[in-house]
Hints:
Blueprint: H1 6-37, H2 42-49, E1 58-60, E2 66-68, E3 73-75, H3 79-89, E4 95-96, H4 104-114, H5 121-131, H6 137-152, H7 158-161, E5 163-164, E6 170-173, E7 180-182
Parallel strand pairs: 1-7
Antiparallel strand pairs: 1-2, 2-3, 4-6, 5-6
Amino acid sequence: MFIMGTKQTKQILREQQHSNSSALLDEVKDKLQLLRDSGLSVKGIVSLLHVEKPLIQLFVSRDYRLFLGADRVEICMEPIVKAVYLLFLKHPEGIMFKYLSDYRDELTNLYALLRPNGLTDRAKQSIEDVTNPLSNSINEKCSRIKAVFMREVDESIVEQYAITGERGKTKKIMLPRDLVVWE
């Protein structure tokens, strides 16, 4: 009796999987062509394939910790990044980046709540940078926020949790506020 080694067995399994995947892909292509032949547009087919993920509730605790869903998955951010996020959460109407300096005091208060040891000169400079329309700091913070949510929610809904908006226009968190629970 011939006994195969582990490497050989794994290789055979991979080849079988590849063969099965190729056959399945060919079958899907045939079915898609049948849909096209029946008059359905590519856009229509894509819309059939798109399964929208449900939005997940966002909880903000008394001590400003952020949690997602019933499982209470914590969303961790650096204090300045979280302060920016909380500022935008508190302003569902959105904020234009060029007017962030108008929100400097509010951002400072939020940041101070997240830094129990007080605001150092460096922390104050971070606030100045974020609210300076000539600095790229706010864009960096928004990128970090999006990256955090990319790790926790489906890519199809991440824009709902991030700070988004067209360049030069109002930026906001699109998540419906009935899904934001403040303790």
